[in-house]
Amino acid sequence: MVHWQRYVFWFASPARAQVLAQRVSGPLMWLAVLLLLPGLWLGFVSTPADGVQGEGYRIIYLHVPASWMAMFSYALMAAWHATGLIWRTKVSHLMAHALAPTGAVFALLSLVTGALWGQPMWGTWWVWDARLTSSLLLLFLYIGYLFLLHAYDSPTRADKGCALLCLLSVVNLPIIYFSVRWWNTLHQGATIRPEGASMAAPMLAGLLLMTLAAWAYTAGTAMRRFEQLLQAREAHTQWLGDLTNEENRVD
Amino acid sequence: MTEWLTWFQPWWPNLAAFFAMGKHGVYVWGSVAACVLALGLEQWLLAARIRRWQADQAVLQTLHSQQKMPSSLISIVNSATKDRP
Lengths: 251, 85
Fold this sequence. Notes:
By secondary structure, chain A is an all-alpha fold.
């Protein structure tokens, strides 16, 4: 009965988690570059202009990956916090803390690139429709999360407090996603649906490559940050090991 | 078969058209610049945080090896300052 549990919780040990993070963060960043280059080529160099929007549509290759990663990161944070609360694994909370800044950056970029796209196409930088408002709310949630993280003196309280905020506010994600279906919004509807995509093949390929590059970037950066958070939190325990080895004469 | 080849050929007749992006050059290149700036800044800040933490740990290590600071005190310093960048 113990066997499968041992493997499921293999990386719940801080030492193993740190080694994993160290090993994967570099390759993930390289993967991001490898995916970014053909994505940029397809998106900005080789695909033709859009029939309606002209060349300005190319912002899609930045805006959509940023938006998707902002939402996906928040969902991942909620999953990691839920894991940490249910199984009381400390490193799960740290993984969520590591994802937050990158998710926040992508949420901001989603709004900025969206505004730069909206001005030439809609004639306005901003409109308080359902999609944009809920996306702005996502950015505020990220900022609130980051402030909350640094507000606590005790790290375990920080873990619990941020977990509470994240899990209660994750309801915003389906609101963002379905807003274009539930409400009458200026923002266009979904182009990519489970039934298929109404996009030409090279454009879709470019979009998917950019999205995967954004994912690899998020994963690599989060792993680097996770490694650093882990070291900072475990530093006092590493030094304790020396006490038994060398020098009581120093104390 | 020939359709695949178009994926490798540039759509732009010349570099000037590429930078102009129709009439939307400001918006498209502005978006690119925003992404490069934001993500570059994030990487730089993360690297700076890691460097700062490693420098602090190096100072503690030096003090310890010169026997000016016991392990127990280093543990206390680290546990008091954990999560403080």
